Each structure stands twice: as C-alpha cells, then as structure tokens.
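Record 1 of the preview.
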Amino acid sequence: MFMRLRIPLLLILSALAGPLAQAEPMEIYCTIRSSGANLNCQVTGKERKVMNVEQIGNFIDAAEVASYITLKSRKGMERTYMIDARSPQFKRFNDVKKSASISEISKAKSDLFNEIERKVIKVSDDLDGQAGAAELILYDSSFTYDKLRRENRTMTAELEGYRNNKDKVCTNTPAFEQMSKVKSHLQQTLSNIIYAFQTPDTCMADYKVFKDRDGSVDLRQLDTITDHFKSSCKKH
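->
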C-alpha cells in the first residue's frame, strides 16, 4: 500500500513546486544512456544522484528564468544548452497548466522533459558530426566550455586558499589587533562601572542596570546615567 502512494505524492510535490516558490536558474549535467534514447541526469551542485520526479518538475519550472543542460556527447564533448521557454512546446505546456489537475500537470512536465531529452540528443549528435568533419581549424562550443574550466581552475584555487585563510587574513593586522585591545579595554571599563552600580549604600545604588540571560547589557539603559549621577551624587 505504501509503494502505491509514494509515486503520486512525488507527482503532487513536483506540480506544487512552481506555484509555491519563484523559480530560480537551474543546471543539470547529463550523459546519454546506452540505449541512446534517454539521458542520465543529475542536478549540478547537488548530491550525485539521478534526477527524481520532483527535480524534473523543478527543472521545467526553472526554464521561466534559465534552465541549462550540460551534455557529454557520444564523442565525449561537453556542451551546454539553454532551454527555450518561448518554444511551441512550452506554449502547449503552459496551456495545459491553465485547466489541468495536479497529476496532469506533473505528467505534462515529464512528457516535456522527455521531448527535451530527444531534442538535445539529436542536436548533440549533429554537432558531433560537424566536429568530426573539421580539419586543421577546429570549432565547437565544447571548446569554450573546456577553456572556461581551465581558466577557472586558477581562480578557484585562489578563492579556496582565501576561504581557508580568511580568519588569519582579516585578523593578523596591527590595526585589527589595536582595535581588539581597545574593545577589550572598553568592555572591562563598562563591567567595572556596572559592578560599582551594584554596591549598596552608594549614591548610584538605586540606578538599576539589568542584564540579559546571556550576561549582555543593553547600553540604552545608560542613556540617563549622567543626569542620575548629577542629581544623586552631589555633596551636601
């Protein structure tokens, strides 16, 4: 009984994903299955698992902003394609959404993704054929992708180095150390003043300063300290 309910629940979640939240750009990485008719895809930046029904629905919704497929072709070339949300296929899908039920919308998303699979495989095969016919001067969109990845390696390594050392970079400076000393001194002075206010039988004993549960003090309580001192601590 549980297995029968599981698939419809995923379909419902997939159909609701669009209306409940604004779509965001999404990219998937795919390879062509051995059958040659379908793709194995995973969401870029997520755990390496084959896309589920909900993620397929999210991918279709994201096309309103930007949906990308990076496909490794049969020749091993990685090319990135953008989904055209203004295409006739998406127009038909949007017409279906106007009156369809949740399950019907989810099925329409799955059918649209299947159509995307067939189309991107065909385009990939055509581009492989064009690339194979070239000689001396080679051009393919996959070269741009590969070039960008190589250029990003240095930048990524520098960024990772900064992330690993950001605490040292930000705090190992004379200015920061001086600021830390001043802050520590001010905190100690404030603690001494607050402690003094708690001394019984002094002219400031009735000036109450309240501490929060974590021991911190809202400094706005000290706004009237000057007036209170002038009125309560005069010599008679």
